[in-house]
Amino acid sequence: MTTTASAGPGIRVRDLRKSFKDLHVLRGVDFEVGRGEVVALLGSNGAGKTTVVRILSTLMRADSGTATVDAVEVGADPAHARERISLTGQFAAVDEILTGRENLRLIARLRHLADDDAIADRLLDRFRLADAGDRRVSTYSGGMRRRLDIAMSLIGDPPVVLLDEPTTGLDPEARLEVWDTIRGLAAAGIAVLLTTQYLEEAEQLADRIAILHHGRIIADGTLAHLRRLLPPATVEYVEKQPALEDIFLALVGNNDPSAAEDAPSETTEGPA
After folding, report:
1. In angstroms, rounded to a whole number, what is the distance separating the alpha carbons of residues 37 and 15?
2. N or C terminus of the chain: which is more exposed, having fewer CB within 10 Å?
3. What CATH number should be reported for the domain holding residue 36?
4. Is 148 among the domain residues?
């Protein structure tokens, strides 16, 4: 089912509050995510990032305040809100026994969409999985599984995507692939809320960064804006050593990450 985007930001949160008995997790959270924008929600463990995502995805009700996705208030109309969002968590929710194509067709049928074959073909091509579409997902690399997971979550053309630490556990090459996928979502006009513990990931992907601390947003702006909150930098000569990620990618090569993925996985067979 294709939804028509409404006017205004993709996500708007106002004075959002949530407590668990005496533990006040959210103490009046405010932020917005525009269409075609990636906003990174940063915070240490226990800051309330996942609570915000669970409220936006209708998995939890706020105590007070409002949260809207594509102009639909999630507390007042959760069924309608669920049609507007896609949620991708830390672990790929794919069926390893099925092929990539079968996973996509299954979700399309569950959403009661016509022409599931065409939907699967389009998404396999969009996420650079066409050559692996008829292979079982158990043979996919971590990056391929994550791309398939995001592709499955986009069936139905949701205008809002919630990514809760989507690169957790991925190797450097797979993480770069997912980064490219997230950039593509924003380029397509989708509002993307990204929670991550990787500060470099936020620097690379986010148009704006919101920092959640003790249940409140204490800073919200572009990276350049946040840098201006600190004292001016002093200029010193520092000999820069390559990061481990730079060394890793230089040694293994990163010209065509899909080529290595699409090769069949190694198996051990006994004598004929």
Report:
1. 21
2. C
3. 3.40.50.300
4. yes
- Could you give the number of structural domains in the chain? 1
User: Are the beta carbons of 143 and 178 closer than 8 angstroms?
Assistant: yes
Q: What confidence tens digit (pLDDT) does each residue in 190-241 have?
A: 999 999 888 889 999 999 999 998 899 999 999 888 888 877 767 777 777 7
pLDDT in tens, 144-160: 888 898 888 888 889 99
Cβ neighbours around 48 below 10 Å, total = 23
Q: Are 119 and 108 in contact (CB under 8 A)?
A: yes
Q: Give the domain extent around 122.
A: 21-229+237-261
Residue 188 lies in a domain: yes
Strands 64-69, 72-73: pairing kind: antiparallel
Strand residues in the chain grouped as ranges (E): 11-20, 23-33, 38-42, 64-69, 72-73, 85-88, 160-164, 191-195, 208-213, 216-221
Task: Report the chain's terminal Cα–Cα distance, integer Å.
Answer: 50
Is 189 in contact with 166 (CB distance < 8 Å)? no
40 within 8 A of 196, measured Cβ to Cβ = yes
Distance CA(124)–CA(119), nearest Å, equals 9
Spell out a b/e string for 207-227, using b for 16 or more CB atoms within 10 Å of the CB, else e.
Answer: ebbbbbeebebeebeeeeeee
